[in-house]
Amino acid sequence: MIIHPIPPLFDKNSKTLILGSFPSVKSRESSFFYGHKQNRFWQVISKIFDEKTPVTIEEKKQLILSNNLALWDVIGSCDIDGSADSSIKNAKANDLTIILNTAQIQRIFVNGKTALKYYDKLIKPTINRQAVLLPSTSPANAVYSLEKLVEEWKIIKN
Fold it and tell me: Most buried residue among 31, 103, 107, 130 by CB atoms closer than 10 A?
C-alpha cells in the first residue's frame, strides 16, 4: 500500500479543482504533481494562462495559485505497480473536504479516465458533485497532441 505523499495545493481563492488519479513514481520522488518530464500538464496549464512553462516547484505552485486553481489527486492510498494506472488496486479516496471547506470551489475537473473512474466510485457518492473529464496529459495518451490538449483544457479558464 502506497500512501499519497503530496499535500493538496490550494488557497482560499481557488475556484477550480483539478484532480489526477495518483502520483507517478517521478512525482512521488520529487514530492510534487506531474513530476515526469514527459507529462504535458505544466505545458498545457501555462499555455492556457499565457505564462511561461514553470520549471521549479515554486514556479509551479505560483502558476496554480495565481490562476485560482487547486490541485490534488482522487486516490489517497492504493497498491500500484510503478506508475501504471491500470494496476491500481485497493484504492482509498483523498479527503477533499480539506479543500472544499476552505476554498470556494465552483468546478471540479479530472485529468484522465482513471481519475474519473475513481472519482465517481470513491468521492462523488460522498460530496455529490459532478466532475468534468479532461483528456489525460500523460505521455501514455499519445492520441492527443499538445495543441489538442490545450484546446480541450481551455474550459478550465472560463
Answer: 103
Q: pLDDT of 127-142, one tens digit each?
A: 999 999 999 999 888 8
Residues forming beta bridges with residue 144, ordered by sequence position: none
Number of Cβ within a 10 Å radius of residue 78: 21
Are 23 and 5 a contacting pair, CB within 8 Å? yes
The pairing of beta strand 107-111 with beta strand 16-20: parallel
The pLDDT confidence band at residue 34, using thresholds 50, 70 and 90, is very high
Whose grid coordinates read 500500484? 80
Query: How many structural domains compose the chain?
Result: 1
Instruction: Give the sheet arrangement for strand 75-79, strand by strand.
Output: 2-3, 75-79, 89-93
Confidence category of residue 84, pLDDT binned at 50, 70, 90: confident
Strands (E), the chain: 2-3, 16-20, 69-73, 75-79, 89-93, 107-111, 132-134
What CATH number corresponds to the domain at position 108? Answer: 3.40.470.10
Strand order in the sheet with 16-20: 69-73, 16-20, 107-111, 132-134
More confidently predicted of 36 and 47: 47
State which residues form the domain around 153: 2-157
